[in-house]
Amino acid sequence: MGEIEKQIEENVKLTEEKKEEKKEAKSGVSRRGFIQGAVAGVVVGAAATYGATQMMQPPTAPTAPPTGVEEVVAGKRTVSMTVNGEPVSMEVQSNWTLLYDLRDKMKLTGTKVTCDYGECGACTVIINGKSELACMALAIRQDGADIQTIEGLAQGGNLHPIQQAFIDKHAYSCGYCIPGMIMQSKALLDKNPKPSDDEIKDGISGNICRCTGYVGPVRAIKAAAGMI
Predict the structure, then answer these.
(1) pLDDT category of residue 66 using cuts at 50, 70 and 90
(2) pTM for this one?
(3) Is 28 helix (H, G, I), strand (E, B) or coil?
(4) Most CB atoms within 10 A, among 15, 26, 170, 195?
């Protein structure tokens, strides 16, 4: 059978189907209408059954608002802490890091964002006397904490001895990692005022510097140890 004959046969079938639909329309019920009506009936019946089922369910008692950990996970909490000697009270979200809180909310931008997952040390601050990575510390857990950042080292317009030593010994290049390294150095010297070269290298081993080769920082920390 050629293509023309196939088209003719298909057109004939379509014509016959249309005729059947016209006959059904005259009788008042078409096949399409019957199918549509049946489907609509099923949907309405299902909806009525669901509504009746819900009406039969006993009312549930109101639940108490979440407390403790659940409350923290759900939203915000007011945290009070001391930052560079000043009391700070602010509302923080449960997913904020201390790094975000310091930089974006308190505008203490000396603490740097670099890796943001605890590998480089550029965001080092001192929390309760111990060096910590601000990108790995949740702000919501700092309630009651004593936090010191690079902005809090200088006193009365005078640089801290470690800051001055880093300048005097040219222990910096681009300077981006230096705030974190200085804070780590302070934590080291607070614990060990007279460290050896190996102890200094071990102390700043978590602070990545791609410019200085660490010779300058080690020299500066030794100099600062003699001034503190």
Answers:
(1) very low
(2) 0.67
(3) coil
(4) 195
